[in-house]
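Aggregate trends can hide what the representation actually does to any particular protein. In the encoding step, the backbone of a single protein was reduced to a row of integers, each denoting a local shape. The record that follows shows the chain in one-letter code together with its fold in token form.

***
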Amino acid sequence: VSWIALVIAILLTYNVTGEWQQSTIFSDGHLTQFDSWQGVVIQLMLVISVIIPAAQWPFHRWLIESVAAPTPVSAIMHAGIVNVGGVILTRFAPIFTNEWIIGLLIIIATISVLMGAGISLVHVDYKRQLVGSTIG
């Protein structure tokens, strides 16, 4: 679902700007076009594509269930899949102009931090504590 949302966001970005390269998309002339309803949809699709692989609330359960996997598999999932959310958010940060979308990201992040801290405090298993710190 995350990758589908990212592809939709990229295709809508091309539809709005007519550009494929990020350096030209993030120019001042194109950034003003993200204030429209299409810009809000693009921002929502990017939020969805970010919070799922980053194991943020309400999509955090996949990371908790991955603890049952062998350690090398869970380490690859932890290092590769979780970090992609932050990379996507950083690369597309200039597009986020809508304060409601930014507020939504802050609410999701706050809930995730509190939940991750709670998981880390409750569990004694090191892998589950790592999951809690990753969610946080």
Summary: The chain has eight helices and no strands. The helical segments are 2-17, 22-25, 28-31, 37-51, 61-65, 71-91, 99-122, 126-135. The CA atoms of residues 47 and 105 lie 7 Å apart. The mean pLDDT is 79.
